[in-house]
Amino acid sequence: MIRFLLKGIIRDRSRSFFPGIIVSTGVFITVVMYCWVQGIFNDMFSVTARFQTGHVKVVTRAYHEEEKRLPNDLALLQSDSLSAALQQQYPQIIWKERIRFAGLLDVPDENGETRVQGPVFGMALNLLTRDAFDRKILDLEMTLTAGHMPDNTGEILITEQFAGRLNIQPGDTVTFMGMTMYGSMVMQNLRISGTVKFGISTMDRSTIIVDIETAREMLDMQNAAGEIVGFFRDFIYRNETAADLAGEFNRNYSHSGDEFAPTMLTLVDQGGLREIMSYTRTMMAVMIVIFMFILSVILWNTGLIGGIRRYREIGIRLAMGEPKDKLYFTMIGEAALIGLFGSAIGTVLGLLVAWYLQRYGVDLTGVMKNVNVLLANKLRAQITPVSYFVGFIPGMFAIILGTALSGLGIYKRSTASLFKEFEE
Amino acid sequence: MENKIVELQQVDKAYRMGRHEFLALKKVNLVIEKGEFCGLVGPSGSGKTTLLNIVGTLDTPTAGRAMVLNHGLENLTHRQAARLRSRYIGFIFQTFNLLPVYTVYENVEFPLLLLGRPEPERHKMVMEALESVHLLDKLDNRPAQLSGGESQRVAIARSIVKKPQLVLADEPTANLDAENSHHILRIMRELNSRYNITFLFSTHDEKVISYLRRKISLVDGRIVSDEHLRPEENHATASDL
Questions:
Q1: Chain B residues within 8 A of A423 when measuring between CB atoms
Q2: How many percent of chain B have pLDDT more than 90?
Q3: Which of B58, B110, B171 is facing A415, going by the closest CB pair?
Q4: Testing the interface with A: which of B107, B113, B201, B202 to mutate, by most A Cβ within 10 A?
Q5: Which residues of A touch B126 (CB under 8 A)?
């Protein structure tokens, strides 16, 4: 019987082809959108972790509460011993000290007078060691567009866009004006060794990258660090492990009464990422449900048209003694088979497009110009294990629901009128 | 008693048409025995198709007692009626009603698939049925590739392939020319003789009537005459053609 039904599905193209196309299209869109959202998510996590949060981060509780204003007056003291302790206690994580700061960058003319000024965001990390982890994690060699990496203290990298705006180039000297850890004013001459382009609008706008020892000297932060960031050695963020780690650390070190006690935060605890993640997942689920509903309605309609077209065939089968429920479930079985094939085709096509988007991405530099979240200008999709089956959920559900609704007509069909119907 | 295929006693069938009730069958009494070759004859609206529906378990009487193949229709569920049809009753329709996407072989095979017969047995039975309607050379043709006469012969093969006890044929010659009509009627009469299958026609075609051994005339839902005929002498069998 199954072979008999299969022959019918294959030979009667309007029974299989059009519903198949509808399912394939729906599944295709679902897979591409899912991979796209996953890619944006993954990219956002990756960029945020690399530039801002790490997979986990240790700061003082007071620093965490006022993190938006980069409060280095609330930084971690004796950071070297804390780093060493963390390295010993959690060897599965690579721990790195960082200082983030803000101020004004002054560009002098040939007479030493201010030619141009601009607000600047600074990030200090270990730059001077050639194989330094921080150089690798920010991919600094690859992002270098002119000049060279800093070789000495007092040398900095500046983003290409910022350098262009200030009309400066590698070899020029600029003056950083800001505040030390203790609140006094600092004016420090820095030499530009090279320009970089991260491809992230927020970072490219007005950033300088400074070696951490230069920053410590400049900001009077000897043996202190604004934050100690940690990365899993394989650079894959595992939320549960990170949460366990943070929970254990905070139980041991984060005393409730001491606002300067170190506290460990996971990636999703920072920058509202947990909310974004939860919101996006909810939106994704809502989108899939809406999609299933729309597909179901279309396939219901297709099923009704098919039912009209197959009206005579259904009548013959009823007359010949095929029970109504068997006929109904046979049609649902046919639909499931078409749904399976349609979903498989849609998934393959969706994965192909997702693969292309994963490999080449879509450059949205123009759109991202004024965006303030850490997101790469080139957005990419990401194929995950879920991508291989996520499309089957709306695909199968929609066609089965559509057929189940349209097929209810079988139960309303009166066998008493079959002879009359067949006279025409 | 065992020879009775159909037994109707005081059967009424009423249809509601708006506020009015239309009585399509009135106090019908009828007995059809195994192996009969009989027809319901009468003008349009006389109740032929209604009676055929009841005998074919496609409908139930409003009043009276109807026994078909030893099953009382009053207590039959839809599923039981479907099972009775799939096992013991064959149908031939005026417009052939073959399944268009399937070949001749597959169309004839379908009733056996419903019965869950194994493949070797199905093959044997389908070939035998197609051989009896002289269509072994059209096994792989689709209905669209057949003439009207050939299509009706496929429909006959489909109706008798499961060796039913009763075949119901509604105006089987209505869409055929005279030559094809005679051809399929001879085939049906031969099948009736060879397998002792009971045939019940609904017709007002004189050609069909000329082949009947029993003519049941209906007018306004009542049986007005029930005649036994002897038509064998007038017609050659299909094998003589």
A1: 94-95, 170-171, 174
A2: 57
A3: B58
A4: B113
A5: none
Parse chain A into domains and list their residue ranges. 2-47+275-422, 56-236
pLDDT of residue A97: 93
**Residue B164 falls within a domain, yes or no?**
yes
Rounded to whole angstroms, how far apart are CA atoms A64 and A49?
A: 16
| Per-residue pLDDT tens digits for A330-345 | 989 988 999 999 999 9
Enumerate the residues of chain B whose CB falls inside 8 A of the CB of residue A313: 99-100
pLDDT for A302: 77
Residues in chain B within 8 Å Cβ distance of A318: 82
Mean pLDDT check: name the lowest of A216-220, A333-337, B168-172, B232-236: B232-236
Find the helix or strand (DSSP H, E) in which B64 lies. strand B63-68
Helix (H) or strand (E) holding B178: helix B178-195
Distances (CA, A) of B4 to B13, B66, B166, B198, B214: 22, 12, 11, 10, 15
Q: What is the ipTM, given to two decimal places?
A: 0.86
Domain interval for residue B197: 4-96+143-240
B116 domain-assigned: no
Work out how many domains chain B is built from and give that number: 1
- Residue A407: how many other CB atoms lie within 10 Å: 24
Kindly state whether residue B18 falls inside one of the protein's structural domains: yes
Q: How does pLDDT run across A88-121, given as a tens digit for each residue? A: 999 999 999 999 999 999 999 888 888 999 999 9
Query: Residue A8 is nearest to which of B79, B87, B102, comparing CB atoms?
Result: B102
The two structure tokens encoding residue A312: 């005579």
- Cα distances (Å, whole numbers) of residue A298 to A218, B77, B102: 66, 35, 28
**Contact: A324, B82; criterion CB under 8 Å:** yes
**Shortest alpha-carbon distance between residue A322 and chain B (Å):** 6
Structural domain includes residue B203: yes
- Choose the mutation target among B102, B166, B203 for the interface with A, i.e. most A CBs under 10 Å: B102
